[in-house]
Amino acid sequence: MVQWQYYPRSDAPPPIAVSVVSAFEAVNDSIDSQHYNLKSNEVLAELAPSLLDAGFDVETGKRASEKIYVPVLFGLNGRAEKSFEADAFHAKDRFVLEVEAGRGVTNNQFLKDLFQACMMQDVEYLGIAVRNDYRGNPDFERVVRFFDTMYASNRLQLPLDGVLVIGY
Description:
This protein is of the alpha/beta class. Helices cover 36% and strands 24% of the residues. It contains six helices and eight strands.
């Protein structure tokens, strides 16, 4: 079952976030972490057709030409000097999506995703997808609890307009 939470909770999710949720819901039967132990790239491959239809660029493999790079720093003559990789990026709506599997919470990968999205040029929205269940651990609930705490404390101001957390 797909679960999701949008932040800040006082804002309605923008249409691009709703389209990302719809992409997950469309393939729920083949990615549900209660029934499947897929790697993140396998989940992304299932999502790719819907994401492409929604206007996203989507990573298609491990070769440099198959990856999506979002600039962070610019150097001489305005060339991108530092970029971070993204699983999917919608340039028009400034939405970056990261799909995680086993290490999403265990290795705090979702925090790295958050940090990198905050550094990316022209990114206003971040989507982080994690498993609902990883080896009996409620990964989605853990990530939501983190963002609930972060937004409630109001001590850290993000340079993002919104964050979408999806559990699959």
